[in-house]
Each structure stands twice: as C-alpha cells, then as structure tokens.
From TrEMBL:
<dbReference type="InterPro" id="IPR006641">
    <property type="entry name" value="YqgF/RNaseH-like_dom"/>
</dbReference>
<dbReference type="GO" id="GO:0000967">
    <property type="term" value="P:rRNA 5'-end processing"/>
</dbReference>
<feature type="domain" description="YqgF/RNase H-like">
    <location>
        <begin position="2"/>
        <end position="104"/>
    </location>
</feature>
<keyword id="KW-0540">Nuclease</keyword>
<dbReference type="GO" id="GO:0016788">
    <property type="term" value="F:hydrolase activity, acting on ester bonds"/>
</dbReference>
<dbReference type="InterPro" id="IPR037027">
    <property type="entry name" value="YqgF/RNaseH-like_dom_sf"/>
</dbReference>
<keyword id="KW-0690">Ribosome biogenesis</keyword>
<comment type="function">
    <text>Could be a nuclease involved in processing of the 5'-end of pre-16S rRNA.</text>
</comment>
<dbReference type="InterPro" id="IPR012337">
    <property type="entry name" value="RNaseH-like_sf"/>
</dbReference>
<protein>
    <recommendedName>
        <fullName>Putative pre-16S rRNA nuclease</fullName>
        <ecNumber>3.1.-.-</ecNumber>
    </recommendedName>
</protein>
<dbReference type="Pfam" id="PF03652">
    <property type="entry name" value="RuvX"/>
</dbReference>
<keyword id="KW-0378">Hydrolase</keyword>
<dbReference type="GO" id="GO:0004518">
    <property type="term" value="F:nuclease activity"/>
</dbReference>
<keyword id="KW-0963">Cytoplasm</keyword>
<dbReference type="GO" id="GO:0005829">
    <property type="term" value="C:cytosol"/>
</dbReference>
<comment type="similarity">
    <text>Belongs to the YqgF HJR family.</text>
</comment>
<dbReference type="InterPro" id="IPR005227">
    <property type="entry name" value="YqgF"/>
</dbReference>
Length: 139
C-alpha cells in the first residue's frame, strides 16, 4: 500500500501527517508555514513530500459548521484540494474534521504541555487525528 498524507489546512499553517506502510496508523510529520492563498509558496514543499513518500492519496480536513454547512474555512480547504489535484494529480479525500482541533488541544492539555509547545504542534496533531479517522474508516 502507498502512504497517505493527511492535512489540516489553516490560513497560516498546514499540519501534515503520514500513514504507515500498511495504512493503519498516522504519525505527525511537519507543520508548513504559508500565506493563504499563495499556493505557489508551498508547491515545491508538496512536490517533495509527494515524491519522497510516493503519495497517491491526500486526506484533507474539511471544517464544517456544526449544522453540516460549509463556511469560509471549508471552502478554503476545498480550494486547496483542487490545487493539489490540478498540480500533482493525486486523489484527494475531504474528511469531516469538526472538533478535531479541539480534540487535539484536549490531548495536549492532558499531556500537560505548555501553551507555547501546544501552539507548535497543534496543527500537526490535528492532521494526525484527521488522517487516523480516515484510516480507521477504511478498515
């Protein structure tokens, strides 16, 4: 099985997670800093990730409103998905990520992590939770 990339796309950072070879577990990989919507600014980074890990599928968190509608952040994530498909010809799955960032924050709080450290890893942790949710749904 090829590895799957998981993304938590924000306006300033993109949390990145990757699956293991079997598609069972998600691990945090990195946090990419960018200025939305300057896709060119992250094109080389994503080319490198996709090539290095032989990525054919990307799971992107789709932040929906609690009523299920898609707001500005959700549209921004869909736009990013379109960029990845158009640029790299990868399959993209949009994954409902409601509450993912809050769940990640809770895990880090329970780990007694300082606010400064939480801020550095929260997006990566959210990407892990998005990807793990997807992987669990596939088994």
């Amino acid at each position: 099985m090829t590895k799957v990339l998981g993304l938590d796309v924000g306006s300033k950072t993109i949390g990145v997670a990757i699956s293991d070879d079997f598609g069972w577990t998600a691990q945090g990989l990195t946090t990419i800093h960018w200025k939305e919507p300057e896709y060119k600014s992250v094109e080389d980074t994503f080319k490198q990730l996709i090539d290095e890990y032989t990525i054919e599928k990307v799971v992107i968190g789709l932040p929906k409103n609690m009523n299920g509608s898609i707001g500005f952040r959700g549209e921004a994530s869909q736009d990013f998905a379109k960029f990845l498909v158009d640029t790299f010809s990868v399959d993209v799955v949009m994954w409902d990520e409601r509450l993912t960032t809050m769940a990640a924050e809770k895990v880090l709080l329970e780990a007694d992590m300082s606010r400064a450290k939480r801020k550095k890893v929260i997006d990566k942790m959210a990407a892990v939770m998005i990807l793990q949710g997807y992987l669990d749904s596939q088994s």
